[in-house]
Design a protein that fits this description.
By secondary structure, this protein is α/β, with parallel strands linked by helices. It has 2 domains: 7-116 and 256-292, Periplasmic binding protein-like II (D-Maltodextrin-Binding Protein, domain 2), CATH 3.40.190; 118-254, Periplasmic binding protein-like II (D-Maltodextrin-Binding Protein, domain 2), CATH 3.40.190. Helix content is 33%, strand content 23%. The chain is built from 10 helices and 15 strands. The strands form 3 sheets. Strands 1, 2, 3, 4, 6, 7, 8, 11, 14 and 15 form a 10-stranded mixed beta sheet that branches. A hairpin with a 6-residue loop joins strand 12 (230-231) and strand 13 (238-239). The protein is globular and about 65 Å long. Residues 1-5, 10-14 and 16-28 have low confidence and may be disordered.
C-alpha cells in the first residue's frame, strides 16, 4: 500500500475513462481472450490492496489486458456480477444459499474460487491495557453482554456495515448467529475503523490481519492499533493473528478469500483467475500479508 499520487494512479484513471467510453458506445469491443480485453473486478475493501497489485502485475505481463479493480463490499460485488457491471467478484465471505438460488433462477451458473486465507484480527487502542481475549469474551463484547473493560471504562464496539462480507461472516461464524450490539459503531472502510480506535481508547474492532501493517514492502507496522491474541478458552494458549498461525490453523478466527464469476470464465476473466492461483499470483498474496492456498509454503516461527 503506497501513499501519494503515482504514475499508476494516473494509469488507473485513464483505464476507468477508457472502460466507461467503451461501455457507453465507443469503439466495438474485440473478442476477449485469457490475455486480452477488458474486465472489471469488484469486491471487499479489506483485501483491495492485494487485488490491485494482482491487477497491476497481470497487466504488466499482458499488454493487451485491462483489469479495473474496484471496492464496494462483498454484497455489492456479488450483485454486480449478475448485472455485468463487474465480471469477477472478490469477497471475504462465501456466497449464501439464497444468493445461489437467486442466481440459478436468473439463469446463471456460479463458479467459486478460494484464492487465499486471512485471519480476522481483533484490534484495540495501543493504550488499552487489555492483553488478550478468549473466544467467549469476544462474543460477549460484540453482542453487548460484556459492557466494560476491567478498569470500568465502557467498551465501544466497532463493526463493519451490512454490505461488508466481514459483517456477515463474523456474525454467522464467530458470533454463531447472535445479533451484534445495537449501539455498535458501523464503518465502511478499514481506515475508518482504525481512525476511530486510534481516537477512542476504549474502542474495539475487527479487521483483516493484512491491514495490521501500513505497508508490506518495506514493512511498516500500523501503530494506531494493536492486535490481541485470542484463546479458544480462558485456559488455552492465546494466539496472535499472523501468516504462520493462520496457515497452521491455530489462530481461532480464520476465513477464506473468494472469487466468483456468474458463469464459466472463458475470456480475460479466466486468465486473471489463473494468474492469481498461479505461483506468481500466490507470491503477491504472501507479499500482502495473506496466506496462499494453491502453492506449498513454510513459515518460520520466531521464539520469544
Amino acid at each position: 500500500m503506497k501513499n501519494g499520487f503515482s504514475f499508476r494512479n494516473i494509469f488507473y484513471l485513464t483505464l476507468i475513462i477508457t472502460i466507461v467510453f467503451i461501455s457507453c458506445g465507443g469503439p466495438k469491443k474485440e473478442p476477449q481472450t485469457p490475455t486480452a480485453g477488458y474486465i472489471t473486478v469488484k469486491g471487499s475493501e479489506e483485501v483491495l490492496p492485494m487485488m490491485m497489485e494482482q491487477g497491476y502485475a497481470f497487466m504488466d505481463l499482458y499488454a493487451k489486458a485491462k483489469v479495473l479493480v474496484l471496492d464496494g463490499g462483498s454484497d455489492r460485488a456479488l450483485a454486480a456480477i449478475f448485472t455485468d457491471s463487474a465480471q469477477i467478484a472478490f469477497t471475504t465471505r462465501p456466497i449464501s444459499d439464497a444468493e445461489i438460488e437467486r442466481s440459478k433462477q436468473a439463469g446463471f451458473k456460479i463458479n467459486e474460487y478460494k484464492i487465499c486465507k486471512d485471519g480476522i484480527a481483533i484490534v484495540v487502542n495501543p493504550k488499552n491495557p487489555v492483553k488478550k481475549l478468549s473466544v467467549e469474551q469476544v462474543i460477549d463484547i460484540f453482542t453487548g453482554k460484556l459492557k466494560s473493560w476491567a478498569d470500568g471504562s465502557p467498551i465501544r464496539v466497532c463493526i463493519w456495515d451490512e454490505n461488508s462480507g466481514t459483517f456477515e461472516y463474523f456474525q454467522d461464524s464467530i458470533l454463531k448467529g447472535k445479533e451484534y450490539l445495537k449501539q455498535a459503531w458501523r464503518f465502511a472502510t478499514t481506515e475508518d475503523i482504525i481512525k476511530h480506535i486510534d481516537q477512542e481508547k476504549s474502542a474495539i474492532g475487527m479487521i483483516s490481519m493484512s491491514r495490521l501493517y501500513q505497508n508490506w514492502s518495506p514493512l511498516v507496522e500500523e501503530t494506531r492499533i494493536k492486535a490481541l491474541p485470542i484463546g479458544l478458552t480462558a485456559q488455552s494458549n492465546f494466539i496472535y493473528p499472523d501468516e504462520s498461525t493462520v496457515h497452521d490453523g491455530t489462530y481461532p478466527f480464520i476465513r477464506y478469500i473468494y472469487m466468483y464469476t456468474p458463469n464459466d470464465p472463458k475470456g480475460l476473466d479466466s486468465g486473471f483467475i489463473s494468474f492469481i492461483t498461479s505461483t506468481a499470483g500466490q507470491k503477491l498474496i504472501v507479499g500482502n500479508g495473506l496466506v496462499p492456498i494453491t502453492i506449498p509454503v513454510k513459515y518460520k516461527k520466531e521464539t520469544m
